[in-house]
Amino acid sequence: MKYKISQYAKKYNVTTRTVWNWIYANKLITERDKTNHLLIIENEDKKINDSVAIYARVSSSENKENLYRQRERLENYCAAKGYKVIKTVEEIGSGLNDNRKKLESLLLDESIKKIVVEHSDRFSRFGMNYIVKLLKLQDREVEIINESSNDRDDLMEDFVSIITSFCARLCGLRRNKRRTEKLIENILKEEE
């Protein structure tokens, strides 16, 4: 199928400037017609970058404004790279929580070939290497925009994650201890 630049931009809901960027980056196949207009040739069997999702996450609803800015930065990045985003996932929840429903549904959706995130800790605090390897087995990937620039940054991020994890577990244990004490207290009251 052949498209004018404006038609192609409308089809993929991007600006004509983005389409021109894709052309200059050799991401699209083009040809000239009889009147010397540039046409984009799209092979229906192979669509370029049409299975990308973005994932944005903040830890609490107090940071909701940051969530919107994060999503906007991800959208701009994808547009600049020529990716066609077919799914946007925004989530509020701890990076330590391994039961985030929206992330889980994104990981289970095999039609998504690339997941774009701003920082690796927005995606997962721990086990990122395992997730990446499992996705690679399905010919899928996670693209992290802002990777740590050096090993020292990685080490500091890991250290902060470990401290955060232990603090969260400690608070959880205290809550569990209080629940257990209350349960025992209720049982003793019932026996009286």
The share of residues in extended strands comes to 15-25%
Based on the coordinates given, report the CATH architecture of the largest domain. 3-Layer(aba) Sandwich
Order of helices and strands: EHHEEEHEHEHHEH
CATH class of the largest domain: Alpha Beta
Distance from N terminus to C terminus (CA atoms, Å) equals 82 Å
- Fraction in helix: 40-55%
Taking pLDDT < 50 over at least 5 consecutive residues as the criterion, the unreliable ranges are: none
Tally of individual domains? 3
Shape, per Cα inertia axes? elongated
In total, the number of strands is 7
What strand order characterises the main sheet?
5-4-6-7
Briefly note the CATH topology name of the largest domain: Rossmann fold
The CATH H-level superfamily of the largest domain is: Resolvase, N-terminal catalytic domain
> What's the alpha carbon Rg, rounded to whole Å?
23 Å
- Sheet of most strands: 4 strands, parallel
